[in-house]
Amino acid sequence: IGVARASVDRKGKVFLSPDEGIWVLEYDKGQLECLTSPPTPLSLSPAPTRIWVCVDCAEGQGTFISAHNGAEIF
């Protein structure tokens, strides 16, 4: 799940990183991680089944929040 700034270059190689204006959470093989450089493993137990994506357009930031308890994930 993710969100990207409108200004992200969509041609050529894309780096999935907040530094590049792209915020992505990946769930693979039972592990949730934020795709930063290097990836940031997240230790959440249990792993959230619903995630809210909050976008602050004025600040150019994205945040992921657990819909279960309202806790910020990343």
From TrEMBL:
Q: Which InterPro entries match?
A: B30.2/SPRY (IPR001870), B30.2/SPRY_sf (IPR043136), ConA-like_dom_sf (IPR013320), SPRY_dom (IPR003877)
Q: Which domain of life is it from?
A: Eukaryota
Report the protein name in the record: BT2A1 protein
Q: Which gene encodes it?
A: Btn2a1
Instruction: Spell out the Gene3D superfamilies in the cross-references.
Output: 2.60.120.920
B30.2/SPRY domain: residues covered: 1-74
Q: Pfam families under this entry?
A: SPRY
